[in-house]
Design a protein that fits this description.
Order of helices and strands: HHHHH
Number of helices: 5
Shape: rod-shaped
Structural class: mainly alpha
Largest sheet: none
Helix content: over 70%
Radius of gyration: 50 Å
Length: about 210
């Protein structure tokens, strides 16, 4: 008992407090380190996920950009193809209308030739010659008429029958054709054909220019 009483309790208590303090400090230090490590790991995980997300978004954006570029290129190629087709249409319509007009004049010239030769052939009083020339004339006339009607048909096929401008143009062409078939000069009606043809061609050229700017 005397030994127990002789112990330095304050020193012991101080030592115990130091030990507890060291243990508590060590515990707190380890816990804080664990918390810090966990926080760092969470931050790293979030950063990794964010990088993956950004990479996926960048990939999707690149795919979208490539798709949009391909779509624009397809639209551009389509516009070029349509513009080329319209240019070809303009050229075909202009050529066929010009051929029609030229063929009406050919028919009118043949009528004039027939009238001019008729009196001469009567004076020659040569039925064989008259029949031979009439046969040749009929062949030329038939060819000219067929060519004229073919050009008229091609023009009709090139035009949209629902459009008012096309209807007026075809009506003028038909009047010119009827005129020359009736052995009358189609010149004035052909001028009307040209007048009505020009706005049709102009409108189509405007469409081509719009496509070229697309």
């Amino acid at each position: 008992m005397e030994k127990l009483c002789s112990l330095d309790w304050p020193t012991l208590a101080a030592f115990a407090i130091v030990v507890l303090t060291v243990v508590a400090t060590t515990f707190l230090t380890i816990r804080n380190q664990n918390l810090a490590t966990a926080a760092q790991r969470q931050i790293a995980d979030e950063a990794g996920r964010r990088q993956i997300q950004l990479a996926e978004e960048a990939g999707r954006r690149q795919i979208q950009i490539a798709h949009e570029a391909a779509t624009r290129e397809q639209e551009k190629l389509r516009a070029v193809a349509i513009a080329d087709a319209r240019r070809a249409w303009i050229g075909n319509l202009r050529d066929e209308a010009s051929s029609f007009i030229a063929e009406t004049y050919s028919m009118w010239d043949l009528h004039q030739q027939k009238v001019g030769r008729a009196e001469t052939l009567r004076d020659l009083n040569n039925p064989s010659l008259a029949m031979a020339e009439l046969g040749q004339w009929s062949i030329r006339y038939g060819s000219a008429r067929t060519a004229m009607e073919r050009s008229r048909a091609k023009v009709a096929l090139l035009l949209n029958p629902q459009e008012e401008a096309a209807q007026r143009l075809l009506a003028a062409i038909d009047r010119s054709m009827s005129k020359v078939k009736g052995q009358e000069d189609p010149h004035q009606l052909n001028l009307k054909v040209i007048e009505l043809l020009q706005p049709v061609l102009k409108e189509e050229w405007s469409r081509v220019k719009t496509l070229d700017l697309a």
